[in-house]
Design a protein that fits this description.
alpha+beta; four-stranded mixed beta sheet
Length: 112
């Protein structure tokens, strides 16, 4: 079972530049932490794939094992795990997230 879930996660994070595993959807976040990451990504103007972990308990549990991170939301950029809501907000406020996105080629330099 774990292999199937991990394969789905690997496929998602390799097929999309930015993936947010969250509670709810980008349009209708179901928790404040997920909403805060959606807000950061929206302010940056980067397209991202949202995956609602509330619709699939295997993914909800599997993503925590996959990333070795205990909480949702979880942000991946070009296949790399970035962190949860606090990490993403802090990185955004310091400019580190914008720099990372530029280095990964998913954010144009003039967008910061």
């Amino acid at each position: 079972m774990e292999n199937m879930v991990f394969n789905r996660i690997k496929s998602d994070i390799s097929c999309h530049d930015i993936v947010l595993y969250m509670k709810g959807t980008a349009a209708f976040p179901m928790c404040g932490f997920s909403a805060s990451v959606v807000q950061v990504l929206s302010q940056m103007g980067v397209p991202f794939r949202d995956i609602n972990v509330l619709e699939d308990s295997d993914i909800r549990d599997g993503i925590k094992q996959f990333s070795r991170w205990p909480t949702i939301p979880q942000l991946f950029v070009r296949g790399d795990f970035i962190g949860g809501a606090d990490t993403v907000r802090e990185m955004y406020e310091t400019g580190a997230l914008q720099n990372l996105m530029q280095k990964k080629g998913v954010l144009a330099a003039e967008a910061t």
